[in-house]
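Researcher: We're teaching a course module on how sequence relates to structure. For the next exercise, students receive a sequence and then see the predicted structure as tokens, so they can try to spot secondary structure elements on their own. Here is the exercise chain.
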Amino acid sequence: MQSKGNTLNCFNVLAGATALVLIAGCASTAPQAPSTTIPPAVLALEPPAANTNPAQQLQTLLEAEWQRSLWENPENTSILGDHRYDDRWTNASLDAIKASHEADIAALQALLEIDRERLNAADQLNLDLFRQELSRVIEAYRYRHFLMPLNHMAGVQTANQVTEILPFQTVKDYQNWLARLRSIGVLIDQNIILLRTGLAEGRTAPKIIMQRVPAQIEKQIVTQPEASPFYAPFKTFPNDIPLDVQAQLRADARDAIRDVVIPSYRRFKDVFVKEYLPGCRDSIAATDLPDGRDDYAFAIRSHTTTNRLPDDIHELGLKEVARIRSEMELVKKSVKFNGDLKAFFRYLRTDKRFFYRNGDELLASYRVIGKRIDQELPKLFGTLPRQPYGVKPIPAAIAPDTTTAYYQQGAADGTRGGTFYANLYRPGSRPKWEQEALTLHEAVPGHHLQIALQQELGSLPEFRRQAGYTAFVEGWGLYAESLGPDLGLYQDPYSKFGQLTYQMWRAVRLVVDTGMHAKGWSRQQAIDFFKDNTPRTDLDITNEIDRYIAWPGQALAYKIGELKIKELRARAQDKLGEKFDVRAFHDVVLGSGALPLDVLEKHVDAWIAQRANAG
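Model: And here is the predicted structure for the students to work with:
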């Protein structure tokens, strides 16, 4: 889940965007308007009268705050398929960030004034979840992550990627993009101020990961406007846009890129390389930041929705690593491999039989696997989403520095389907044996099925339909990988080993994330532990470790969430016996959208009790 305390994700509209902002994801209003400007959609909402019933008060407040979140975060609003603010960037100014924080405090005060006892159970849950999230983003402000607005995975240096989810169907769509091109200099200057303020306060990202950023900025400094990634939408037009209008739009785009975009990125690179990068911290631990131990504890609470401590999580990881290694040994034995597990890992990383010759073959294979899974889903789910999904390659500009795959949710209004993005960079490092587990996680029955179903829960308020708790969303994705045998997958022992590899990958995260951020581990120590326990390729391992350095605590949520869902399933099977129905279990887990793990547990326990007492 993104938060005001993690502004680096403002432009990360593709990478890992499986959960949207609940309140305000990055900063506040757009550069074209003062930070105190109230969006028309909010102004149109009449404040409830003093004698209004609590349910109406809650509904009005939730809608007003939802509209504020859309106004404050136009890129995320575009992801939802709401294109009212497609001509704006998020305002990343310090004044705007502060104004949004103050608005959060005011919203929490208004929420606390609602008489909770007079609400029904559903509205009490809505109020409790909204209060929890407001409290979280208010606390996040203390750690001032907005002073680290970018990293090697995302930031203003890759702002062009928002075009992946924007419509380019009408003249207005192109004019909106031109407006963003003409105002990007403001956004870049705001980022420069954030970076300089972070330097002054000792709040910087680690130098080891930020060394990747200059090359990303350099890709925006082209010699010809037509070569700019920002120009890509103007290379093709719908047939119904007149040729003379197309020509004018192209000319306007070239002017904006030449006069604003390129000079702004040249200015940004100069500051980044000469000032910021030399001042970045050499350490990698989140606990080395101001208030670092509290900051990391907050990150763990936010992502896992638990109060688990780093040492506890570290030990859990070591136990899971040992358990999964024993299962790996059994698979190695079944294929009659002569050698130890480390040698088997080396074989899986290097033998050409496990790799495709090119990216096209790799992409086609993912699509075939997805289709095979689709037809088996009714075996395990009573309710399936209406929204479709597709499989696309990760944009080439970011592929070398990002993960193996990620999911981009579809538009809330159904005008754009979900997308499973697969990394085709260096196909010789993308083994076939990981594909089935990866597709189960990112597409179906993982992220796409869960998020699309949530978006279609019309009875829930918008903040819940579009929200995500990392432990739930990623825990479900990891749990989905375990459903492979029921869906006809993992018939090949190497694909089964691929599933164990992905299980191990998430177990290793528990060890290395806490190791680096709380126990003094070096980056190399984390890389070595990862390599000793998984057959993933060197490129993947390095990118993964650098991701954990950039995003403390987030990677802990996967295994913790998965173990909770498996625990609840085992409990239901034990207590219900013959009354247990896996389709009904999955429907109840997904039927209320993403939830904190403690709330999910209460929800499932109530379902178990109800089903046990049924005739």
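Model: If you want an answer key for the exercise: The mean pLDDT is 91. Strands lie at 389-393, 405-408, 418-422.
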